[in-house]
Amino acid sequence: MSAPGQATGEQSGAHTQPVPDSPGTRSVGAASRLDAVGGEGQGGRGRLRAAAGTGTVGSGGGLSAGRRGLWSRLDLYGSPYLFIAPFFVLFTAFGLFPLVYTAWVSLRAWDLTGDAGFVGLDNYSRLLADPDFWNALVNTLGLFVLATVPQLLLALIVAALLNRPIRALLLFRLGVLAPIVTSVAAVAIVFGQLYGRDTGLVNGILGLIGIDPIDWQASRTSSWIAVASMVNWRWTGYNALIYLAAIQAIPRDLYEAAQIDGAGAIRQFRSITVPLIRPALIFTVVMSTIGGMQLFTEPLLFGQGDVSGGSLRQFQTIAMYMFEQSFQNFDYGYGSAIAWMIFLLTVIVGVANALIGRRLRGGTQ
Predict the structure, then answer these.
(1) Which residue ranges are recorded for the region named Disordered (predicted)?
(2) Domain 121-364 of CATH type 3.40.50.1980
(3) Phi and psi, residue 92, nearest 5°
(4) Which of 12, 241, 280, 286 could be bridged to 246 by S-S, CB 3.0 to 4.6 A?
């Protein structure tokens, strides 16, 4: 009995072992695996195509990013030059070109009939030997001193007063602008009446204190005073506003500390205000130098349009002499030489002012 049982157990054990695949089964399984692999292959090819498509998009994005980087660099480094280009274009057209062209004309004999040819430095040699030029130079320097030094000192005092708490402060600040916006022709008419020889207000006031009437256009000194008063009246307020803006930028703590130390108003003005507004002082000195060396309108109107500056040329400036030679005598070559001399004198005086300012700054430090 045991043998059959054992046989039965062996048969049951044999049934638990894996049965080998038949050829048909193996073929079906292989086909299913191939389909799976094929599906994976198609998916792989799809992924490859997707990757290739992604790579194409990425290269296009890289080109776009490169263009954006190029435009960004152009905007960063090129836009500042674009913004300042209008100034240089206008300066070249209306500043540099006339300067160079005037220098070229000054080396030629050029009159109303046209260019007569190159003459070199003959116009400058003639200019240095011209007594009328030296007379105009003396008048220009004299008017420059009389119209610049009092003007800047008075402007500094006015700015200091306008910086104090007074009533109707805004009205006074606006009042100093009135001479700037007033027509030059109106200024000439008013000052012509003030300095009239027979009925002028100034001579009337002088007569009250026993001084005889003065013909303000007859002598050099009187005409210089009259013209300088016109210039001072017109430009003192402009410089005062510049000084006022510089004074208001000074910290109030410095004045409070000076008051605690016992410094008075004059000592504060001399030790705090003036040193701290030195850049504004230098700016106004330079601008006044340029304007003084090119003084033209005020003496011309004071002489009722006479470009010769009086019967004896007693208040003719270099700018007036240049105008006379160029547009009355039509000697454009000689007038251009005078214009270049004005430019050189302005540069020389400006450099002298800068050196003096640097020396004073070094002394105060």
Answers:
(1) 1-30
(2) no
(3) -65, -40
(4) 280
* Sign of the Cα pseudo-torsion (311, 313, 316, 322, in order): positive
Instruction: Read off φ and ψ for residue 109, nearest 5 degrees.
Output: -90, 100
What the block records as the tokens of 261 is 């130390």
Tokens of 273: 């205000």
For the segment 46-70, what is each residue's pLDDT rounded down to a tens digit?
Answer: 443 443 444 444 445 555 766 777 7
Which residue type does 157 have?
I
Q: What is the reported pTM?
A: 0.73
**How far apart, in whole angstroms, are the C-alpha atoms of residue 339 and residue 98?**
11
Total residue count of the chain as it appears in this document: 365
- Written as six digits, the tokens of 363 are 């002394």
| Angstrom distance (rounded) from CA 71 to CA 69 | 5
Sketch the domain layout of the chain as residue ranges.
Answer: 53-93, 121-364
Q: Minimal CA–CA distance to 110: which of 325, 331, 344, 272?
A: 331
For residue 199, which amino acid is it?
T
The answer on pLDDT for 200 being more than 90 is: no
CA distances from 272 to 3, 132, 265, 276 (A): 131, 46, 10, 6
Average pLDDT of the residues in 145-172 = 87
